Amino acid sequence: MKVKLAYTRTFGCRANVSDGEKINGMLAEMGYGFTRDMSGADLILFNTCAIRENAETRVFGNVGALIHQKRRNPDLIIAVCGCMVQQEHAAEKLRKTFPFVDLIFGTHVLHKLPELLNEVITTKKRVTDISDKQHSVVEDLPIRRESAFKADVPIMYGCDNFCSYCVVPYVRGRERSREVATVCSEIKGLVQSGAKEIMLLGQNVNSYGKGLDGGGGKITFAGLLRQIDTIDGEFRIAYMTSHPKDLSRELIDVIAESSKISHHLHLPVQSGSNRVLALMNRGYTVEQYYDIIGYARERIPDISITTDIIVGFPGETREDFEQTLDLIKKAKFDSAYTFIYSRREGTKAAEFPDPVEPSLKSAWFGEMLEVLDEASRTAYERYIGKTLRVLCEGEGRAGGRYSGKSREGVIVDFDLKGSTDRDIVGEFVNIRINKALKWAVCGNGTFVQKGKG
Fold this sequence. Notes:
With 453 residues, the protein is α/β, with parallel strands linked by helices. Helix content is 34%, strand content 22%.
């Protein structure tokens, strides 16, 4: 009997990628094989993102292109799921504009994929489920992981912050935390299976613990990290994303005292203007942000700090924008993810007056990139002459044979004496840095096989 093949594609953030691994796990248990060739697939599934308008545009373009394949193969099943679909306007567009899509389901019913897909197969009718009923955390879903040595582990789902520009609370629901014992058990199993980097996921990991019974004591992200840090094995703990309003000094102290937790802090600031931060409903001031990163650098001198910045938020003035430029210069970020504001239907900011012309926003954006480039131009020079512990991930891109990331989250390209590809990928190595680029560092090391000193 011919094995049915599934082509799956995930758009968006690490949380979506984690969902995609569960989708693939469920499909594998249903007997599907997998293909990267859409033309030979029996099932095509797009797992979507809603964070920006161009993400939706890409999905609709990819779905529209499937009409010819569906005509050639009427038995082909086309499914669209994820954050974009959880928005009623997007789901309605899929229903009306793309009648050849067989299955449409949202984020709250991910665990029902086998049931929904079976309904499509048996009834030969379109199935839609974008229920906004929030379920408790569903555990024990099968997972088909993309990497043998890196693993994403969600510790919570949803968001309670309601930043005025963001759709996440509407498409992912309110915050629900996984039990500490469940998280630690999953990580123990992963480490025993060879995982070397564990990425803890949450829209705001710093608010982990909401809804959990601490037996008289409050459960916090710092407390969770302490427990994970005691798990035996050689592995690194990373996490994303941190929200400035909930990042405690206790958490920074735990990181400073740990031998396993990453020294990379991704801390989205979004704007350098207190007025704009208030409009964004971010819950902190620029002064509080400086205090957080100042304490982090005091306790963890080698820490790498990266951020997110939005330009052209509704109502932003030139003065507000210049305050953001000033923050970039003073904060000395290693790098930043930068965006021009994207209007999201259903958010509070979508109702704000927005008098600044798109062309001016683009000009501001270009100006900001120049300031960021200058600010980060020499950031990595501080690593020259130092030895970094690097997890090798594959081939190099900047002149070295290999590439990986250090505990500080820095990309390291390197050459290694005494190694082979089989020996080194997925292993930790010590690399002495001799060159700095704007986006990476380069170095050399000597590989010693296990059991040989």
